[in-house]
Design brief:
The longest helix is centred in the middle third of the chain and has 12 residues. The termini are far apart. The chain is of the alpha+beta class and 71 residues long. Strands 1-2-4-3 form a four-stranded antiparallel β-sheet, covered by helices on one side. It is elongated.
Length: 71
């Protein structure tokens, strides 16, 4: 795995009234994960990014799950 690389292992899309996408993956460091999170929050077609606190527990080689609400 390259340094600074975010790896997505799962993408789920739910076509409900409020379209949601679930992302699950790995980040090499908490810092890289937080950069990725901020980048997602700036995407114009994403209304909301929910990240549970447990995503921040590990400092390195962390697993994460995010729920995105699309506009």
């Amino acid at each position: 795995e390259a340094r600074g690389e975010i790896t997505l292992q799962k993408i789920n899309y739910s076509a409900t009234a409020s379209a949601k996408v679930i992302l699950a993956g790995q980040a090499p460091t908490r810092s890289e994960f937080l950069k990725y999170l901020e980048t997602l929050r700036q995407v114009s077609f994403i209304a909301q990014v929910d990240s549970p606190v447990k995503n921040l527990i590990q400092e390195k080689n962390l697993s994460f799950a995010l729920e995105l609400t699309l506009k």
